[in-house]
């Protein structure tokens, strides 16, 4: 949880070894022996996490590296490479679309191909670092939400999108958002929610190899991708269940700029560790998928 600590996520864990079966019992997917697993004692994460880095894990010594799930799969010839392709799915669409994870390759049916590739970052903890060149709203006359490029880390472990405070303030004005200091999230009132559901504007993230210029790709996100509601009585009951919120967080510095699972609902990431690069594409939502 090194990168996540920059976002305020902390917690201790008990580590051990166990066998990991991918998919449901009887689905025919492989079982991997002697895998490192961790049980976290924190409320910061509500979902289990499947680590897909090819790097081995080390505990008390660097002389006894433990193969990762991806490393074990490739080492045992269960997949042809350390590559993977992932999109978080779009449950707000009709019909609902589940996420897609392909180990050892990618699913051609799940993205719009483009020619933009980005070198994996030298910092192994921030290898999926990409330039956000602009963020725009399709409403006529709307100013850019982000006009000065930044670099952001793509991180499926967290749900929100973390952007500079001035960019968040531009979102506030565009979507009539209210920041809650108690919940540390943007709340959306019923009238605003109804208006934007009816209008269904789109937000376009222009991504590139760098924060300015060069080849780029547009990831277009509908308002529905940001239309979320709390599902439990959190924050000591001060924010009731069903409260509408916008999954945007105020980043205090560049280490917090993050594109989380909200972004990955409409984006497909391919990480190619053999060639040392990755790509981000507009996600597709076919009726069936063939990897």
Tell me about this structure.
Residues 1-281 form the Peptidase A1 domain. This is Peptidase A1 domain-containing protein. InterPro entries: PEPTIDASE_A1 (IPR033121), Peptidase_aspartic_dom_sf (IPR021109). With 291 residues, this protein is α+β, with helices and mostly antiparallel strands. The protein has 2 domains: 2-75, no CATH class; 84-282, Acid Proteases (Cathepsin D, subunit A, domain 1), CATH 2.40.70.10. The chain is built from 5 helices and 18 strands. It has helices at 2-5, 69-75, 165-175, 190-199, 261-264; strands spanning 13-21, 31-40, 84-87, 100-103, 118-119, 129-137, 150-154, 161-164, 178-180, 185-187, 202-208, 216-222, 228-229, 244-246, 248-251, 258-259, 267-272, 277-282. The strands form 4 sheets. It has a 7-stranded mixed β-sheet with strand order 12-11-6-7-16-8-15. A 5-stranded antiparallel β-sheet has the order 4-3-17-18-5.
């Amino acid at each position: 949880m090194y990168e996540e600590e920059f976002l305020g996520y902390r917690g201790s864990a008990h580590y051990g070894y166990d066998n990991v079966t991918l998919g449901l019992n009887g689905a025919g997917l492989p079982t991997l022996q002697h895998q490192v697993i961790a049980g976290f004692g924190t409320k910061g994460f509500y979902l289990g996490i499947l680590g897909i880095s090819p790097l081995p894990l080390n505990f008390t010594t660097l002389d006894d590296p433990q193969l990762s799930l991806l490393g074990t799969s490739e080492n045992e010839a269960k997949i042809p490479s350390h590559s993977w392709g992932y999109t978080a799915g779009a449950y707000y669409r009709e019909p609902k679309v589940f996420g897609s994870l392909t180990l050892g390759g990618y699913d051609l049916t799940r993205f719009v191909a483009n020619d933009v590739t980005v070198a994996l970052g030298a910092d192994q903890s921030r290898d999926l670092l990409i330039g956000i060149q602009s963020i725009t709203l399709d409403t006529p006359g709307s100013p850019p939400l982000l006009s000065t490029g930044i670099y952001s880390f793509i991180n499926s472990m967290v749900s929100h999108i973390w952007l500079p405070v001035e960019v968040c303030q531009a979102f506030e004005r565009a979507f009539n958002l209210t920041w809650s200091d108690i919940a540390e999230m943007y709340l959306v009132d019923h009238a605003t929610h109804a208006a934007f559901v009816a209008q269904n504007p789109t937000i376009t993230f222009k991504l590139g190899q760098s924060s300015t210029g060069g080849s780029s790709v547009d990831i277009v996100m509908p308002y529905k991708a940001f239309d979320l509601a709390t599902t439990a009585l959190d924050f000591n009951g001060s924010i009731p269940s069903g409260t509408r919120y916008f999954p945007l967080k105020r980043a205090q510095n560049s280490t917090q700029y993050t594109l989380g699972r909200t972004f990955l609902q409409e984006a497909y990431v391919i990480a190619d560790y053999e060639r040392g690069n990755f790509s981000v594409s507009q996600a597709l939502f076919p009726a069936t998928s063939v990897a």
